[in-house]
Please model this.
Amino acid sequence: MFRYYEEIIRQMEKELERLANETFGQRELSVATSNFWQPRVDVYETKDRIWVKMEISGARADQIRVSLSPDHRTLIVSGTRDEETVEIGDRLRCYQLEILYGPFERVIHLPSNVPIDADNLSATYKDGFLIVVIPKKAPEGPRVIPIE
Model:
């Protein structure tokens, strides 16, 4: 019975998010048409790196997948966060349900004007935060072409 209401709540959340995105012009890929929730994310650039910090507390590292598109311009973080079934069965009443569970996906478009070193990305997950470090590629200087 609870699953029925949980599904209704998720559908309402998706519809509200869709309306907010249309109203404020903030469209994210795959959210309005899927069953995924989106973790919050910070993306910032330093002198030699792009940093992506994502809040995914409650998920295990083996439940998270980080991938980079073939053109190296899009980072995709997906996975799942499971709810403890013991908690669900023991609930008599729910007064507030704000924590999202189930599959998640976040698509992050990387700056197109920053060359990145796709071979040396790193990802760590600690204390509920996923940190992806994307090194910048050293700018290439002029190439000398030998004459034969």
Q: What stands out?
A: Residues 26-33 have pLDDT under 50 and may be disordered. The longest strand covers residues 74-81. The beta strands are 41-45, 49-55, 64-68, 74-81, 102-109, 122-126, 129-135. The first helix runs from residue 2 to 24.
